[in-house]
Amino acid sequence: MGEREFAISTAVLRATGYLESIRILIGVLCIGVGLVSAIEQFHTVQPLGPHGMPARAIHLTVLVSALVVGAWWLARPWPSHRTAIAFAIWGDVALAVSGATLATPEARLSATVYMCLIGAFAAVLLGYRVLFLHCGFATATIAVFTWVGVQFDGASLAVLSLYFLPAMATVVVMPAVAAMVIEGTRRGLSATAYAANRDPLTGLLNRRGLFTETGLTLSRSARGSFLAVVVIDLDGFKQLNDVHGHSAGDATLRAVADQLAKLIRTRDIAARVGGDEFILVAGLSDENDLDSFVRRVQALTLRNAAGLALQSSVGVTWEVADRREFDLEAVLHRADDAMYRAKRVGGGTAVVVEPPAPAEEPTAV
User: Fold this and answer.
1) How far is the C-alpha of 89 from the C-alpha of 128, rounded, in Å?
2) What is the rounded distance in angstroms from the CA atom of residue 242 to the CA atom of residue 240?
3) Which own/partner pairs from 210-214 qualify as long-range (CB within 8 Å, at least 24 positions apart)?
């Protein structure tokens, strides 16, 4: 829930240099709220604080947890998505419980205003689904505090409206409006990024998208796995354009792209990097998986929009998926050379080139 939104927001904050500042700010705010709550333990300073030992003990437990959580934010790196959701849940529950221990309905309703901080956190980082749950919980908390004040404390609903209406506007409405603006901006950026990484004719990745997605594939690859790269060039494509026109050529490119998109697995990559040249990148778990992939590529038959078989030259190579040593440009160059070797023998075939053997270390004398 909201994992995509969290990943995008985290990436933006990291790219702009604000990630560490936001982390420190959250930690300071948690500690600050805890210290402000500590004042409520002293009736001489704040007479509307918790009354009675049970209420004071619960309130003290919550404020101590705020200090601990704040220190955690300051000491630890940026959290994972699940940890961020856990923090939002803790924040809402802690503020509701802390507010419930206060002596008057006016004080309880005023304390709910702090929940706007959790709303802002959810709106910016966790997406509208988590924010929806926050708004529902905050609304229920405000409603319960209001009902208890009228039913058990004898407060006037008209008087309490001076507290619960501003609380609703601050805790629920403002974060919801902020979330709509942020979500609209996020979708606009996603659409722009999608367009920047896609070939407009075929919908496959372009060169920029190829490098971006390959980097993500490498980051997910297990140690000892392989990354195979295939370069495909359609034979006689220039003659097709010259004889039948560019519309026929475009239809052929779209047909090939559709076949490649159906051929690859969900985690694999298909790209068109220019003209009639296509590239496939596949993450493979072991040598058996690699052999099976190479056989599938060698048996590949592409067809045009009318279903007629096309002749193509194919170059295949691979490399161990070591994210520190992997050089996509070098691997692409090797696959490209293999493809041109296929062209030089007349096309219509696939040439497989193994990666170069690692350089032997000099023997010590």
Assistant:
1) 15
2) 5
3) 210/269, 210/271, 210/273, 210/279, 210/281, 211/328, 213/269, 213/281, 214/269, 214/281, 214/328
> Among 27, 18, 182, 173, which Cα is nearest to 91's?
27
Return left, alpha or beta for 317; rule: phi > 0 is left, psi -120 to 50 is alpha, else beta: beta
Q: How many residues are recorded in the chain?
A: 365
| DSSP-derived 3-state class of residue 322 | coil
The larger pLDDT score, comparing residue 45 to residue 358, is at 45
Structure tokens at 319: 């490399």
Round to whole Å and give the CA distance between 110 and 164.
8
Residue 22: name the closest of 125, 123, 113 by CA. 125
Instruction: Tokens 């905050």: give the residue.
Output: 138
Q: What distance lies between CA 201 and its chain's CA centroid?
A: 27
């942020």: which residue's tokens? Answer: 182
For residue 61, pLDDT beyond 60:
yes
Q: Are 109 and 164 in contact (CB under 8 A)?
A: yes
Q: Is 315 helix (H, G, I), strand (E, B) or coil?
A: strand
Can you name the residues that pair with 231 across neighbouring β-strands? 279, 315
For 23-55, write each residue's pLDDT tens digit.
999 999 999 999 988 998 888 888 998 999 999
Q: Distance (Å, rounded) from C-alpha 231 to C-alpha 348?
A: 13
Alpha carbon distance 260, 179 (integer Å): 38
Beta-bridged to residue 277, according to DSSP, are 233, 274
CA 195, CA 183: separation in Å to the nearest integer? 18
User: Which tokens go with 286?
Assistant: 């072991």
For 255-282, write each residue's pLDDT tens digit: 999 999 888 877 889 999 888 999 999 9
